[in-house]
Structures are given as structure tokens and as C-alpha cells.
Design goal:
Elements lengths: L3 E3 L20 E2 L1 E8 L4 E11 L9 E4 L9 E9 L7 E6 L2 E6 L1 E6 L2 E11 L2 E4 L2 E9 L6 E2 L2 E6 L11 E5 L9 E4 L3 E6 L9 E8 L25 H20 L16 H7 L6 H13 L3 E5 L6 E5 L11 H10 L6 E3 L10 H13 L7 H25 L4 H23 L4 H17 L4 H5 L10 H6 L14
Parallel strand pairs: 2-13, 3-14
Antiparallel strand pairs: 1-9, 3-4, 4-10, 5-8, 6-10, 7-8, 9-10, 11-12, 12-18, 14-17, 15-18, 16-17, 19-20, 20-21
């Protein structure tokens, strides 16, 4: 039966459940430390810890000292972990002063009776040379232990150049210097120490080794640490980085297409209304596009605009029948139908600005522009599909990373991928114009140049309650700043 349990093992500082209840301390049945002495003066350390499931430890931190017992500073890097089933375990590494705290994630039981952890890391500068002898001084059981260790096994593997280990001196000692009784077995390039340690909390076991020099090159430079622990780069970051580059490429392409010289135009392009023009010029449906469409319907006599008494809002009221009118486009019919809500034939302009209240209007406008050949596909639907793809990709990525016990950087890469997908959907949806749509966008940019230079005296000569025919276009094309003096309804 495979069950997951919170890691409560290894050379870890266990936190007891309750001091008042006086629980039994956790017990490590067996701890195996495998040390490989590299020819480049590094140590490859793997700690294997077996503990019973009924051990009352509820939290675990592996605390690795960053100084040897004789006071020399060391560096510990490349910390990884696996459980008893061989699956990777997420680890969080925090360097605090002269210790390195390792917080493991969830573990799987190898069998119903115990839980196992395999912690691996690389140690630099832990060895030293004394003329004809090289030495290693290392705490195989840390001195911040919060539980009992019943059995300890240390396997030391030397470089292949050291063919015989008869001259290797190996000892285990307690903090007070007393020797730990251990059976030492010397093999072909290996030394094994077996000890019924019976270490009590806060005790340590110090391993001291010495062997003839010439098998370890202390002049080998340590590889630079390019990334701090918490910002370590992983290969999965190439996915969001590549997608971000694609997003930038699409955006720059759209901008280059829209960077053509603009020739001022004195009339809007044929076949487009103000509300539709606001979508074509930037590929998005804004609240101002709906307002521009309402102003256009008012200029055409379908609705009336009147200031609400005592408010800064405007009341929109239907003036004449529109259901069978051929001059009303399908999406405009949806807009007019929204004015007839709950039996009323009027609505405030602020209500038509709300995206939720105008969802059906936006959908109809987006679909109609695609049907009439301005967009290759409905921009609103394309943007929605892209955002759903971003959300699903992020959810699947994070779930798979959690199942595989990946580190935080992998999960963060999944979230970054979703964010980039979200942005990419918006960029693509804004630029899926047909050749007809690109010509219309260029013409609208020229008409916007003309509208930016508003003829204020002519507007002031308009009779009260009249609307200038270009005002809806100014609203849709975003040049209302020049029109703030004259008001739509006077």
C-alpha cells in the first residue's frame, strides 16, 4: 500500500507534537551515509534514512553544517531528494549563517511499516592536505539531532587511482572525543564502517579519514554558482521564455504593419459604423465602442438621449420601431433589444458601459465583424479560447509538478507560462485582420487624425439637442479629449 507522509527523517531537526503530552522522540532505525571522494576534491554525499511510520515526528528539517568540525568553511550545493519508491521529492533549501536547512516535501512509503528518504548533495572544500596525507573530517550524523539513531553505516568510495585501502585510517567519534565502536571493512577502493550508534538527541558522529596524498587534486577550481538557491534556473523556464519571445514577435509584427504612413482622411471608410470602427482600429471591444454605437443610433434617430435629472448620467430611450428596419445591423438590433429590459424602453448610459450587461452585444459585434470579412475569426471568441487554454495549461502544469514533487521553480514556470499564454491570446486576437480589415484600420487611423482637430466653432453653432455626425466616431476612435467642450446633449 503506497501512502504519502510528511517527511520526518534524515539528519533532521524534528519538532515534537506537544510538550505537555511528552511524546516519545522519533526513532531512526537505520541511517546509511554513502560518501564518494572525487578526484576534484569534492564529496558526493547520499544519506539514506529509514524510520517507522509510527514515529511521532511531525516535521523535519535536515540541517547541514557549513563548517567542518575543525572550523573550516565548506560549501554545499546541488541538494536533491528521493523517497523509498525512487520518486523525486521537492526540497526547499535555506542558507542561514553557517548552516543549510533542507525542508523536504511529501514522502511515499516503501512498505506499510516504514518511510525512507534519500538525500543527496555535493560538498566542496571539506578535505585538506597535510603533506603526504589527505584528510576528511565530516559530521555523518549532525549535531542538531532531535531523535534516536539505532544503527549507522558509512560507505566511503575513493578514486580509482587508490587501488588499495589498507592504508586508509577511518574512525568514528562522539562530540566528547570518545571513539564509537564500529566494524571497519576495507575493500577494493571502499571503506565501510558499521556501528550500533544508539545516538541520543543532539549527539553527533564525527567521521575522520586519512589516506596517502596524490589521488585528489585540490587545485581543481570550484564551478561558479550562477544562481542562488531560491532562484535556481531550470530547463522548464525555456517554455515561458520562448512563448514570451513569440508574443513579442507577434506584437512587433502587428506594430510594424500599423506603422505605415498615415494620410488624413476627411470621412470614415465605407461599410463601418462608429461602434464597429472602435473594434477594427485596435482589435478590442471597449465600453466606449458601445457608447459610440448608442450615439450613432441617436444621430440616426433610433434612440433619444436625455440627461438624468440631478445626475451626470444619460438616459437612452427608443424613439421609433427598429425590429424590421433593414438599416439596423444585427448586432445593433441586439443592442436595441438590451434597452428593452424588464418591460422598460429606456436604460441609462452607464448601464451600457458594464461589460457583464453588454456581454451579448459584444459577442454579436465580434461575430459580425468576422462574418463581414474584417477579421479572420471573431476576436472576442479567439481571446476567450486563448485565456481558457492559458488557465488549463497552468492548472495541468501545476498538478503534474505537484504529483512529481517538483520544486517551486517548476511550478512558478507553469504559472509564468499561463500568464504569457494569456497575453499572447490578446495580442493575436487584436491582429487577426483580413486584408480588408487592414485597409480599414489604416483608413480609420487617417480619419482619427482629422477628428483630433475638431472644429469647435461649428459645434457651438449646433442647435440645442443636436448631435454632430462625427461625435460618435470621435468617441469610438479615442479622441474625445478634443470634444470635451461641446456636449453630446445640450
Amino acid at each position: 500500500m503506497r501512502a504519502r507522509y510528511v517527511a520526518a527523517l534524515a539528519a533532521f531537526a524534528f519538532v515534537p507534537a506537544s510538550a505537555a503530552a511528552q511524546p516519545r522522540l522519533p526513532v531512526i532505525e537505520e541511517m546509511t551515509v554513502r560518501i564518494t571522494v572525487g578526484a576534484d576534491a569534492t564529496l558526493q554525499v547520499t544519506e539514506s534514512i529509514d524510520a517507522p511510520l509510527n514515529s511521532p515526528g511531525v516535521f523535519a528539517v535536515r540541517r547541514i553544517p557549513l563548517r567542518t568540525p575543525d572550523g573550516r568553511p565548506v560549501r554545499v550545493r546541488y541538494v536533491t531528494a528521493r523517497d523509498g519508491l525512487g520518486a523525486s521529492v521537492r526540497v526547499e533549501v535555506r542558507e542561514r549563517g553557517e548552516v543549510l536547512d533542507v525542508y523536504p516535501g511529501l514522502l511515499s512509503a516503501h512498505d506499510p511499516g516504514d518511510v525512507q528518504l534519500r538525500l543527496s548533495y555535493v560538498v566542496y572544500r571539506a578535505m585538506r592536505s597535510r603533506g603526504t596525507v589527505d584528510e576528511l573530517d565530516w559530521l555523518v550524523v549532525p549535531n542538531k539531532w532531535k531523535g534516536h539513531v539505532r544503527k549507522l553505516r558509512v560507505d566511503v568510495h575513493f578514486p580509482s587511482s587508490l587501488r588499495t585501502t589498507r592504508e586508509v585510517q577511518a574512525t568514528l567519534a562522539r562530540p566528547d572525543g570518545t571513539a564509537v565502536r564500529a566494524r571497519v571493512v576495507r575493500g577494493n577502493g571502499t571503506v565501510t564502517l558499521d556501528a550500533p550508534l544508539a545516538a541520543t538527541p543532539d549527539e553527533s558522529a564525527r567521521l575522520t579519514l586519512s589516506w596517502p596524498s596524490g589521488h585528489v587534486n585540490f587545485a581543481t577550481p570550484e564551478p561558479p554558482e550562477r544562481w542562488p538557491w531560491r532562484f535556481r534556473f531550470t530547463a522548464v523556464w525555456f517554455v515561458p521564455a520562448g512563448m514570451l519571445g513569440l508574443t513579442a514577435l507577434v506584437w512587433l509584427t502587428n506594430r510594424a504593419i500599423g506603422a505605415r504612413p498615415v494620410v488624413p482622411r476627411y470621412e470614415p471608410p465605407p461599410g463601418l459604423g462608429p461602434g464597429e470602427a472602435g473594434v477594427v482600429i485596435d482589435g478590442r471591444i471597449h465600453a466606449e465602442d458601445i457608447v459610440a454605437a448608442v450615439a450613432d443610433l441617436a444621430a440616426r434617430g433610433y434612440v433619444a438621449l436625455e440627461r438624468a435629472p440631478g445626475e451626470s448620467d444619460v438616459i437612452v430611450t427608443v424613439k421609433r420601431p427598429w425590429v424590421s428596419d433593414r438599416n439596423v445591423r444585427p448586432w445593433e438590433a441586439v443592442l436595441l433589444a438590451n434597452i428593452f429590459t424588464d418591460g422598460f424602453s429606456s436604460i441609462t448610459l452607464s448601464a451600457l458601459r458594464a461589460s457583464r450587461a453588454t456581454a451579448s452585444i459584444r459577442e454579436a459585434l465580434s461575430a459580425e465583424l468576422a462574418e463581414r470579412g474584417f477579421f479572420t475569426s471573431a476576436p472576442l471568441a479567439l481571446r476567450r479560447v486563448g485565456r481558457w487554454a492559458a488557465a488549463i495549461t497552468t492548472a495541468v502544469w501545476v498538478q503534474l509538478a505537484w504529483n512529481q514533487r517538483a520544486d517551486g521553480a517548476t511550478m512558478l514556470a507553469g504559472i509564468a507560462t499561463g500568464v504569457v499564454l494569456w497575453l499572447l491570446a490578446g495580442v493575436i486576437a487584436s491582429g487577426v485582420l483580413t486584408p480588408q480589415g487592414r485597409r480599414a484600420r489604416l483608413a480609420l487611423r487617417g480619419f482619427r487624425e482629422f477628428l483630433a482637430r475638431v472644429d469647435t466653432p461649428r459645434l457651438e453653432r449646433l442647435p440645442a439637442g443636436a448631435l454632430d455626425e462625427n461625435l460618435p466616431w470621435a468617441v469610438a476612435l479615442g479622441v474625445t479629449e478634443a470634444w470635451l467642450g461641446p456636449t453630446p446633449v445640450r
